Amino acid sequence: MENVSVPGAPPPLCNDSVLLYSPTGNRSDLNCTPPFFADLYVILPVIYSVICAVGLTGNTAVIYMILKAPKMKTVTNMFILNLAIADDLFTLVLPISIAEHLLNYWPFGEVLCKVILSIDHYNIFSSIYFLTVMSIDRYLVVLSTVRSKRMPYRTYRAAKIISLCVWILVILIVMPFTVFAGVYVDPADGRKTCVLSFPSPEPLWFKTSRIYTLILGFAIPVSTFCILYTMMLYRLRNMRLNSNAKALDKAKKRVTVMVFVVLAVCLFCWTPFHLSTIIALTTDLRTTPLVIMISYFITSLSYANSCLNPFLYAFLDDNFRKAFKTMLECSSA
């Protein structure tokens, strides 16, 4: 594919979202020099920097509040804590992605390349898996309320163990990407980029990795909590019909709504990313400047999910709102 040069500017970096549209997943197969690159070269670092600053500040505040305030040590907040840690971990390494974009090559070596791409994929899987666990927990809470039964096994300690198991599962899922992550050297100009380097036949391996991510990072978790929330609504509806008692008290209902909204925002941010995978795998989509621009928008939207959750907690949960207010008052005193 012929490259189009932009006077006075290096060719733009083809990130992994753009590689979705490559027939092999190799950067050298793509035309990564859209005529609007001069704008992208400035806009993307600004967007990523805002996501990094807001996400790091908000998630660090959530982590601090849950660890500091005794009243915040609940089962749901344990899962929120781990979700915030996952988001914080991603925003911590985002400046390296910004540096790669601005430099237009990878100067950080093979080891850091593996670390960054691994964390990038942790971001894909960890959020959705912790939200799935939170959905299971909400379903069990609703079920116990409907049946008027206690849940002695639902403890803060149990939530810690489950969170550790989720991290181990995500590490195992991401391990293949860690193995294949490496520095690619363009034979034409010697430019280094951090990318997934698959063995031959590369197109087959690349498509397999996309299907792997789609199934484990989207299809299975989304199916799980869709089923859970459908069953939850069904049980609540039946209880309203058969009993005058409220299905959930005010506090439990508020937490359930918060989990549902956080889940909905996560789906809003990540669904375009996974839909783009389906489009890339099922169609012969030509890599045009418009496609590249859309791919960067989709990537930015998925990144933005890492900084939105703290605002949702503050807006939907009284305890978080009071904790945020107390923390701000203490910092201004």
Overview of this protein structure:
The chain has a single domain (18-322), classed as Rhopdopsin 7-helix transmembrane proteins (Up-down Bundle). It is built from eight helices and two strands; from the N terminus they run ααααββαααα. It has helices at 37-68, 75-103, 109-146, 156-180, 202-242, 250-282, 289-316, 318-332, and strands at residues 181-185, 192-196. It has a two-stranded antiparallel ribbon with strand order 1-2. A hairpin with a 6-residue loop joins strand 1 (181-185) and strand 2. The radius of gyration is 22 Å and the shape is globular. The termini are far apart. Residues 58-313 form the G-protein coupled receptors family 1 profile domain. It is found in: Cell membrane. Belongs to the G-protein coupled receptor 1 family.
